[in-house]
Amino acid sequence: MSTATEIHYLEDTNLGPKAGGLYRRQNIFTGLAVGIISGFIGWLVSHALLQSSNWGTDMVVTVTMASWVIGFNAGMGTFNAPFRWLRGKDQTHEDELYAAGVSQGGWRYWKYCTDHKVVGTQYLVFVMALFGVGGALAMMIRTQLITPHSTFLDPETYNAIVTIHGMTMIIATIIMVSGPFANFIMPIMIGAKDMAFPRLNAMSFWVIFSAVPPLMATFFLGGVDAGWTTYAPLSVQAPAAMDAFAICIITFVVSVTVAGINTVVTIMTMRAKGMTMGRLPIFVWASMVGGALGLYAMPAFLLDMSMMITDRATGTSFFVNQVGGNGWLWENVFWIMGHPEVYVILIPGVGAILEICSTFARKPVFAYKVAIAGFVGIASLSIMVWAHHMFTTGWAPLLAGPFMVTTELISIPTGIIFLVIVGTLWKGSIWTRLPMYFAYLFLWNFIIGGVTGIYLSDVPADQYFHGDMFVTAHFHYTLLGGAMIGATAGVCYWFNKMTGRMLDEKIGKVAFWFIAIGIQVTYFGQFWEGFQGMPRRVAYYDPIFLHANQMSTAGAYVLMLGWLIFLYAMIHSWRNGEIAPPNPWHARTLEWLIPTPVPLENFLVDPVVTEDPYGYGDTPPPGQLAPFAEPEPEREPELVPVGADASASDGGSH
Amino acid sequence: MSSETHDHDAGRVGGPEHDGLEHAGHEIDNYLSGKPFFSRAGGKIFIIWLPMTAVGVLISLFLPHHIFPALLSNQGTDVFETMVFFSILAAPVAAIVYAVGIYSLVAWRPKKHNMSEPPPDGAPQRGDGPLTTIWLVASTALVLVLLVWGITVWSAQQVTHSNTLVVKVIGQQWAWDFQYPGTSVVSHDLMLPVNRPVEFQITSEDITHGFWPVNLGVQVDANPNEVTIIRATPDRMGKFTVRCSQLCGLYHAFMYSPGDVVSSQQFANFLVAQGAKPAAAARLAETQPTISGLSATVAGS
Amino acid sequence: MVDTMERAPAEPAGVEPSGPAGSRPKAVGLIATVVVALLLLGGIGTFFWSETYKSPAGTEVAQSLGTITYNGKTYQHVSLVSTTYPDSTGVVNGQPIHPSGNSGWPAYGNTNEFQVPANSYVTMTITQYDSGGALNNPYFAQVHGTLSEVNGRLVPNVAQITGPNGVTKTVSAVDPGSVGHTFTLRPAPGANDQNPSLFVSVPLPTDTSFPTGTTNGGDGPGGGAKAYTVKFGFFVGPKGTYAWNCEFPCGLMVGNFGAVMGAYGFMAGFLHVV
User: Fold this and answer.
1) Number of folded domains in chain B?
2) CA–CA separation, A349 and A484 (whole Å)
3) What would the DSSP string read from start to end of B87-121?
4) Which of A226, B253, C4, C229 satisfies CB 3.0 to 4.6 Å to A230 for a cystine?
5) Which 3 state secondary structure label does DSSP give C101?
6) Which one, of A530, A381, A378, A383, lies nearest residue A461 by Cα?
7) What integer pLDDT is reported at residue A597 of this predicted model?
8) Is the CB of C188 less than 8 angstroms away from the CB of A540?
9) Are residues A269 and A329 in the same domain?
């Protein structure tokens, strides 16, 4: 075995004093500064020119928020490279190394960093912060609902909180797996050195980062009182906060679309030698299907919100029935985004769960190809089911039948997921480490979420349950109990690879029990409310729902405590945890075969894949890859600058 | 599943064949020695599954009686029956997943094993056997049953009746009012005669609301400049609440109206008290003779 | 294999390794995390609680007028007084009508919160200074749910309206084309299950509905229309929060129910029955 001294790590490269160009001077503080200045200029200009017009406030808010987003990203460095191209120049090799975080230490986490591992870590922390905000808002809601006629919040504030809780959680859940894990882990899993478009990768993070301040600004602009679905025409009637909300969504869609393209292209083009599509880890398939589905779904959201802004700020009337538009248009376009979107959230989480089940049952993923077919089947059907959200809107009653058919058909590919999980556990050799706890919790919750879904897919039953707390409980079981628990399992599983330290399982298991019990109590309370007929999104309710609400609130506090303990487990382990070995789970996917912490560009020697990663039970575990393997001389580590022409990277002379 | 003994390598490319790997538990040894795979685990899981299914079915049969409010119409009965029927169908499916999950934790978790090291590998099943097909066929069959049920119930609800009482529903931020065409009555409370099919014609003055007479088991949105229609036949007398099921702004929570299903005589009295002419009130309140719950004939039109 | 790794493992986010696991009692950190989070949550809660509108004039507690006997039962008789202003930015009795009032937004003043005893009879007097127009739904031009005292008798579904000319009429409806505001009251869901349920709605007319010969001369604060005084009575039921609002579309955007109509504290408030 070679010793580490022979290996050249890219991150140890000495860069010249000018490497990186403008990137050297840019970080989150310049981003914030330029963003705030730009937003202020946008406000000044629009206030001077547009305030007096009919829709002045809406125009001013729109322009100000858009200026913030553009300014922040300019300040971060999103536009550096495109501007260089416009000036006929290109990024040099050293610039690219600088952008990838070389020689910046921990500071690179605060910069426009193209290293996929840095982006993944940024996403992880960002998602946790979003969950913190969304969770705090959820606690406001549950606190208000302790008593039927609480005076804690007034109805206006309550509605604003309900809206932003929903949207914050939607943003967080969409990126909770495709952000941290599809960025950090997925490229390593396929044997790639980075994502296909590293700069777009960094952009996707900082763009979504800039989308959140407008969302929070809604609280200071009157609050969006229309719920996260922002049904028109109520949302056209809403205060100017709705414009900030729309800018947030448009920005968010740009980020998710860019990230989706990046994921799909990376998997299509960046696989290592021998990594055929049939040998891809199941999580990679899930990421790809989720990313592709997002590419289909999310642009509809952008379209919807753009029309919303023009309706509000320029007096078009796409959605206002009274002047020739129609609210059903909003609902259709929204759910054309909205239903695939829940599978954009869910599928990568399921992929993580399957990966974990395989590792901790010490068995291959059961019926691998059928599982892929299940993902693809879910994704394909999910674009044809949107109108089940509109069974009770009165739009096209004749279509209730066809949409009931497509909606119930989707339970067939969803059933495959259960088959695959159960089949993977079957006669396994169950290693009950923390990730597996969460995998079992996923199984438990997702069955409940799935079964309650079939009532809602049935039109006659949906006529009772639509718009009531039963729906709320159902989708929290699927999205929180299913997808988010899947993401949590992913955190437990990949935490050591991402941070270099083992997650403390003792604290983690305490958190697990709080979370597991909290979910059941909270959402069974809400099922109960739903059966009794309590509508969603009400700040005051009939005292007949009192006990169900108190049960739900009590559960919510337990759940909150659980997440806090889990948060502490992460913070504690990140700071003081046991140093992680490269492969603590003795798993076989590629990310476990390289050292921890993962060096820049991941593989010092290009891996060659000869089999799928699920050979448990019949092939010996693979050995570690570089630097523990003998590097072949002709495979010296080399950097291929992205965007540069291939000849420029010739050699490995550095 | 024993067929997988020989073809578990199918679909894999590369990788040296390796014998003598350590496997978990004696059941795996059975597997390797070619004994039927299902025998032990299958029977035990069945023993776990059976009571779970039984409990699920019992809950499906009895719990809805206790948690639903009084459902006062034939559509409400449909909701109730659908809940019970779907729950009974779902119980064995959920139970099989839970049973395997529980059994895996009990039986397939190596005892006395150092948790910091992985247990020996499990059986290298790739799932190329018939199980997938069985699962797919079974789940498709279940879905078809759900669909046949759903579409049958749904189309039965679409039948229009003669002698239908028309009630115009107007939603606005944040109140409902109900008009009874043929009279001048406009009311904040929704009164309905029992056993008389009713057609709600719903619209809104401003934005979208959700008209949800909870205990009648129907709902549809009230959209501005559109008239949406739902039908129900109240078949039991009792009070209910009309709630708004679509977030409609500031006082969404306060947008509700009391409702009451009353006898036709009480209904006529109500209309007269609200200012209707007695003759018009009597005309609106009259019901056809009911035969075993069917209160009207199917309209030819 | 692992021990050949020579690079420092502590790389992420600039966090220095601070010793082996357990160098600090976990319980301390855990409790600290929970306490910090609860403090943050409390802070956020306090923020939203302070964001909720509280009238600077506080809650108007009903004045007692003695008792009233109706159907052989004796009830407490109380009175409430309120005013509608065309502009919430004004100042009345040294108090701003609304501390965050926008120019052009009308408001009820001096407060939007009222308090009355449970199971009592309330006589309410509202002085209406604002201009108006047509209702979205003529239903709200009618008087609903009142039991107003007229010449010593309680008459259902009427209100007494005194125009700018000083003439008082007892009406059960006004012209739906010229309403300034309405006072529409209902209990919170389930707070009052009497039959028929409490639902009080009284139109507050403006100029054209009462041909008085006066125009928008501006005897009211803010230079609005001449005042109309609307007096009506109703019985409240058991304890609970009752919500009132205006059903006249005096806001902006769709249905003119945006802006001021969607903001709590201007054209919407609570009647606390204690």
Assistant:
1) 2
2) 7
3) HHHHHHHHHHHHHHHHHHHHHSS-SS--TTSPPPB
4) A226
5) coil
6) A530
7) 86
8) yes
9) yes
Structure token digits, residue A228: 């996260």
Residues A109, C20: C-beta atoms closer than 8 Å: no
Q: What's the number of domains chain A is made of?
A: 2
Residue found by looking up tokens 């083009």 in the block? A269
Coil, helix or strand for A346? helix
Which regions of B180-255 does DSSP assign to beta strands (E)? Answer: 186-187, 190-193, 198-204, 209-213, 220-222, 228-232, 238-244
Q: Which of C10, C13, C26 sits opposite A109 (nearest CB)?
A: C13
pLDDT > 70: percent of chain B = 82
Residue A167 phi, psi (nearest 5): -70, -40
pLDDT at A258: 94
CA distance B250 to chain A (A): 5
pLDDT at B31 over 50: no
pLDDT at C31 over 60: yes
Q: A touches which chains (3+ CB pairs under 8 A)?
A: B, C
Q: CA-nearest residue of chain C to A495?
A: C12
- Which of A154, A458, A540 to substitute to test the interface with B, most B CBs within 10 Å? A458
Looking at the fold, whether A521 and A376 belong to one and the same domain comes out as: yes
| Spatial separation of the C-alpha atoms in residues A350 and A414, rounded to whole Å | 10
C-alpha span between A271 and A428 (Å, rounded): 30
| Nearest alpha-carbon partner for B3 in B94, B125, B162 | B125
Q: What is the CA radius of gyration of chain A?
A: 25
Q: Which domain holds residue B67?
A: 4-10+18-158
Please, what's the largest Cα pairwise distance for chain B? Answer: 94
Residues A202, A77 share a domain: no
R_g over Cα of chain B: 29
Residue A278 sits in the same domain as residue A344? yes
> Measured between CB atoms, which of B9, B243, B247 is closest to A226?
B247
- Taking the CA of residue A537 and the nearest CA in chain C, the distance in Å comes to 14
- How confident is the model at residue B35, as a pLDDT? 46
pLDDT per position as a tens digit, A113-168: 999 999 999 999 999 999 999 999 999 999 999 999 888 998 999 999 999 999 99
Contact between A407 and A383 (Cβ < 8 Å):
no
Is ipTM > 0.90 here? no
**Preferred mutation among A331, A464, A493 to probe B, highest tally of B CBs within 10 A:** A464
Query: Which tokens is B227 given?
Result: 């008239």
Strand order in the sheet with C179-187: C60-61, C113-116, C268-273, C240-245, C179-187, C200-205
Q: Which residue range is the domain that position A186 belongs to?
A: 113-313+325-576
Residue boundaries of the structural domains of chain C? 59-273
Nearest by CB: B186 against C139, C193, C261: C139
**Which of A237, A577, A623 lies closest to C21 in CB terms?**
A577
* Record: contact A231-B247, CB cut-off 8 A: yes
Report phi then psi at A137, rounded to 5: -65, -40
- In contact, A419 and A354? CB cutoff 8 Å: no
Domain boundary among A67, A85, A103: A85
Same domain, A243 and A125: yes
Kindly state whether residue A654 falls inside one of the protein's structural domains: no
Q: CA of B49: how far to CAs of B44, B94, C24, in Å?
A: 9, 9, 46
In angstroms, the separation between the Cα of residue C115 and the nearest Cα of chain A is: 14
Judge: C30–A1 Cβ closer than 8 Å, yes or no. Answer: no
- Domain assignment present for residue B221? The answer is yes
Which of these, A457, A445, A488, A516, lies nearest to B97 by C-alpha position?
A: A445
Question: What distance in Å separates residue C62's CA from the closest CA in chain A?
Answer: 20
- Looking at A548, A576, A604, which one is the last position of a domain? A576
Q: Report which of C77, C78, C80, C98 is spatially closest to residue C89, judged by C-alpha positions.
A: C98
CB atoms < 10 A from the CB of B156, how many?
Answer: 12
